Amino acid sequence: MVTLAFGMLVIFMSFLYLPFIAISPQKFCALLSIGGAMCMSSLGIVTGFKNLFGKLLAKKMLPYSCAYFLSLICGVYYSVVSKRYLISLICILVEVRMN
Confidence class of residue 95 from pLDDT cuts 50, 70 and 90? Predict the structure, then answer.
């Protein structure tokens, strides 16, 4: 439950950077990605990681799960390490679309 609360708090903090997304999307993207990962880990803790990954890796959900996890990883990398403007925006769009 604590990871869900912190995940929601980090996602809320990311929405504070929403008005500045045209200037610097890296902060919004990093916070949104980290908050999404924390919420996914809390779902794994509550439902069990084996059960969660079984549902995420089902044939019907596999393209969406791969796109979401790839956008989480790329979002953190390109907003924190590489600081690429356009790729951060693309990762934001994919994450919001897959939620």
Answer: confident
How do residues 17-69 score in pLDDT, each as one tens digit? Answer: 988 888 889 999 999 999 999 999 999 999 999 999 999 999 999 999 999 99
CA distance 20 to 47: 36
DSSP 20-47: GTTT-HHHHHHHHHHHHHHHHHHHHHHH
Q: How far apart are CA 26 and CA 13, in angstroms?
A: 13
Packed helices 85-98 and 25-47: angle between N→C axes, nearest 10 degrees: 40
Report the 10 Å Cβ neighbour count for 7: 20
CB 17 within 8 A of CB 28: yes
Assign 83 a pLDDT band (cuts: 50, 70, 90).
confident
